[in-house]
Amino acid sequence: MNFWQGFKYVHRESWAFLLACPLIALIPIAVEFVQHYVEMQAGMYTGTEGMRAAESDPGRMIAGYAKTLAISLIGYSVIRFLAGNRDAAAARTLEPRAVKLFAVIFVLQAGFSYLGLFVFEGMSTGALVLAVAGFIATPLLARFIAAAPLGIFISPQESAAQMWRQIPWAIAFSIIASLPLMIVHYALGVGAVFVPGEAIKWAMLAVDSLVVGWLAALVAASSWVVATRKDPPESLT
Fold first, then answer.
1. Domain total for the chain?
2. What pTM, to 2 d.p., does this model score?
3. Which residues contact 124 (CB under 8 A, 6 or more apart)?
4. Nearest alpha carbon to residue 217 among 21, 37, 60, 33
5. In this predicted model, what pLDDT tens digit does every residue of 153-187 receive, in sequence order?
């Protein structure tokens, strides 16, 4: 799968997941909307000063962390959906071994997000080191991550041995694939600060919540493409 094929695939298949599994997709959508409610209460959308003041609001930080957990959580279903060629039944099935393996991935991602949000904040040296480590570690562990929701164990060492040559491609693809939705996401959030009237603000934030739901599915789909681009999905078995 070349770059453009992968780009089209993740947008098409992540959208297909939303349509096939709307209740699962609702998880990050609902959490994002709750975060917007918290931000609204903190005065984030009252103007530039309110936006700056609300950036470090504790409630907003907690809601933001919950969003990262929700995005990680639906990775289980998205990977199973894609591995089964749009198998919605597999996406909704909690297979015991797959759940156990995925729980390890989920805990690791939750811990990494916690460090980024609550320990190494802002533009500190620790935050930059953590960000760089994440950029490198994520593609290296792509097959370890993609195999877990299928009930298959591929060790981090095995994953890294297969993926290390693909790091530049994987990083570039992950960023560029999500860029269109990220632009829409930030445009809606920033736009809500400046538009007049709460009704319009809430409408924009509601649309943004839907965009985040799609983005969550797309992030997982991108991980799947990175993990299987050189080796077919069957190789995970």
1. 1
2. 0.91
3. none
4. 21
5. 999 999 999 999 999 999 999 999 999 999 999 99
